[in-house]
Amino acid sequence: MWTLFWDMHSGGGLKEKPYDKIYIEASEDEAKIIFYNRFGHNPERVTCTCCGEDYSIDSGESLEGVSGYHRGCDYVYRDPDGNECSRLDGFTMGVGTTAGYSAGHEERPSSGHRGEGFCGVEEYVKRDSVLIVRADDIEDDEREGDVPDEGYYWA
Q1: 84-85 sheet: strands from edge to edge
Q2: Is residue 90's pLDDT more than 80?
Q3: How far is Cα 56 from Cα 23, in angstroms, rounded to an integer?
């Protein structure tokens, strides 16, 4: 499992310079604890009420999958037989999928991506703005504790 912390620049800048994307090899709940223990602040903190949370947080089964959007990978819909299909074939806006249909980023360039263009994960992880924290690099004590509420929050 991998969790992405994408800095939203809320409050006007990066929270952990020079990283705008931090990937931690752990489930989302555990990654939030690791993040707090490493960086000393809650990743769900709201620095500025007009900007929202400091980080957009997403998780997925693989680093390739959770980084797909930021690497310019194509987003593909597949039917139950694995054939590429239209979103309209088996997907309902905002509700989910019809049984057996799937969707996700695939290792090919996206025709509609407006970022820096497609790159493989090996190239992507070398960027100065990307921090990769692999499971082997996480100390046992970084996996323990509670993440306190910080900054502005809605109760």
Answers
A1: 84-85, 73-78, 102-109
A2: no
A3: 12
